[in-house]
Structures are given as structure tokens and as C-alpha cells.
Structures
1.
Amino acid sequence: FLDEETVALMLERGTDLVPTMSGLYRVAEYYREAGDPYYCELIYDIALRPQQKSFKLAVESGIRYGVGTDSAGEMVEEMVLMQQAADIKAAVNPAETASGRDPKSWRMAS
């Protein structure tokens, strides 16, 4: 999860954030619906709540963010979870987040 040092490095390097929260949310809610609140709350405690806190820190620090998912979640769920975590009103233009820079400058964060 993100801490202040990581956020500072992200700002320094111009790194954007796409948090992908909905997949874990769906798994947690699956356990709730299956009548197993223990595993639902465990996922919230060890993953979802810390991820929400990280996202809020990033947004409040000025990190550019976008919405997307490569997991079991859906885009609308992703946007709702982002809004709940950081009280945002809208995500950054996804085209700008994905391709607003010269593609030759793209790199994985290290």
C-alpha cells in the first residue's frame, strides 16, 4: 500500500494511479452473500480499507488518477469505490492518463 514516501516518489516521477479496487470488493461481497462474514471482513481489514486509505492519500497529495480494472470488477463499481474512498467527483481524462505522454517515456514504476 502507499505511504507518504511512495507518494512523494510518484509525484516526483509523474506517476499516475489506477487503483483497481473492485476485484477485491467483489470477492469480499461474495463471502458476505455466501453467509461467511468472517472472510468478508478479513478481506476488508487486510486489503480494501488499506487500499482506500492509500488512494485517499494519493488523491489528497495531488497524484493523477484514472479508473480502470483488469479484474473481476466493473468500471461503475470502480468509480463508486474511488468516490467513497476519497470523495472525488470525477476521474482524470482516461486518454490523458493512458496516453497523454510520449509513449516512449512510458515505463513500469520501479
2.
Amino acid sequence: IPVVGSFISDSFEMIMGYSLLLKSAVGSLGLIALVLLVITPLLKILSLIVIYKFAAALIEPISESPIISCIEDMGNIMILLFVAVLSVAIMFFITMTTIISAGNMVTMIR
């Protein structure tokens, strides 16, 4: 029956289109949640970097050299930690976008 067959085919295509739209929306919300999840630790680490650098500069005239170098080293270590957390977050973001786009490509091939 041509009319019923085309009606079912059009309905199926419409359902596939809406599922693709829903998958993209959920993926976008997931990426936004990822950014919001990562920004808090990054801001905390950044504030610790500022505190250590400021403390080292503040006590430099009144303290001994090993204590100052220890606090400066802690600030430098925090910079390395900041870069590590940021790079892992970027890699996870890229992985999530790749997975979302791969799911969309499979749906578009149908």
C-alpha cells in the first residue's frame, strides 16, 4: 500500500531526525556540564598560585633564602598542576565531542 508505506517511512525519518537533535542537545549539555565541573578546581589552583607567589614576594625581605625558594617552588609546582588539569580537561572535551560527532555521523548515514 503506497500511502501507508510512505507515511511510515516519513514518520521513521522524522523520528530519526528528532533523535539526532535530542542526542546533540544532550551532548551539548554534557559538554557545558564538563566545563562547569572543571572550572572550579582550575580557579582554586589559580588562586593558590597567586597566594604562593604573593607570599614569596612578601616574605623575601624578612626571611631566609631556603624558605623563600621553597614557597616559590610550591608556586611553580602549582603551575604544573594547573597545566596538567587543564590539558586533561581539554583532552576529555575533545574526546566527548568526537564521540558525539561519531554518533551523529552513524545516524546521518542511515
3.
Amino acid sequence: ALVKLVRNAGADEVHLVLTADKLMSICPLGVDMYTYRELIAARHNGDIEGIRAEIGANSVIYNTLERQIASTGRPANEFCTGCWTGKYPISAAQKLADEKRKEFELEILR
């Protein structure tokens, strides 16, 4: 919707540059992202061209998780990166995310 608004305002080109990496997994630990269907990167299996086409931008550029973490000056092991990697520090969260991922994969195969 944002890209469309910018184009309707007269932009010839729209380039989306994001300060974060692609969110590939849900967050069962409190952030309000509970289904994979909500996550554009998950719906396109991380494919930038598919994301770009869906939103209608000329280009889409994501930061990398490594650069995100490096920008904090803190060690990577101090962060939960499950939303990006699908690997969670708590087994119950991992189990729920894995179950939701399987449901999502079955849903897109239909």
C-alpha cells in the first residue's frame, strides 16, 4: 500500500531500503507476528524478486542480520534471532514455530 501511495503521488520509481533483514519466521516469544502468512519474506521463501513484485517497487534492499547485530556493538549470542533464522533459544518456542511452519507449508501446497 505504501508503494502505491508514493506512486500515486507522482513518483516514477520507488526503491524500498530496509534497515533489517527479511523476517522469515514467526515470533512465539511476544512480538505480534503469529502466522507465516503475515510475513512477506516467508510467503516468498526469501526471494527478493517475489517480494518486489508483490509490493510493486522497482527494487527492495534488505540489511543483513550480521550487519544488524554488528551495529549494536554487542555479541550475537545476546540476541534472539529466531524471527530471522527460525532458531529459537527456548525449546517451547522452537516447537511452536516448527509446528506453525509445517502448517504454513501445507497450506501453500494446496
4.
Amino acid sequence: NNDLKMDKGKAIAQACHAVEIATEKLLSSMFESTGSDQQFIDYHKYKISGRRKIVLKGTQTQLEEMSKQPDAVHVIDTGYTQVPENSLTAVAFYPSKNNKERFTGFKLLN
């Protein structure tokens, strides 16, 4: 969430939290679902291909919109350090070939 003006370290930590949440949900769904194990297969492909992560800048409004997507996970900060409690700090998505289109218009965090 670029609107919060987090230091790069804080932003990276929040992105890592989002990835951790996405991974937990992905693996949990594998065990809970009675359908396909496709999410687990997709995660395994992601894992063996180098676990790429891309950190992009987004405004509060952009993150709120992205967090509404069904395959999104988000991080709400506890407010212990740089940002107010309950701030939306990061959004992550499961590894997918379809992610490229959804991120058009966002810039890399640098």
C-alpha cells in the first residue's frame, strides 16, 4: 500500500506475510477440498520453478479493489511499528499464469 509510505523493509515484510497467508490457504484447501488437487499442483510447479515473487506498488484504493478478487489474500497490519492498526498493507495471489493481465498498470517497488 504505497499510500502508507512504508519503508522498503516494512513493505517487503508485509509482502512476505501475504505470500505466507496465500501458501497456507492453498495447502489447507488441498486437504479440505473433495475436488481437484490443482491448486497443490500449481503450487508445486511454482515451488520448483524458483518461487518468483514480484512486489508492485499500489494505492489504498487499488489494494482494496484487488483484495475483493476471489483468489486474493490480504494482510491487515497490527499497528506495532510504522502504520496504523488495521491498515491494509499487502495483497497476494496464488501462483498463476493469469496474473500478468491483472497487474497491468502497476509499477515495481524499487
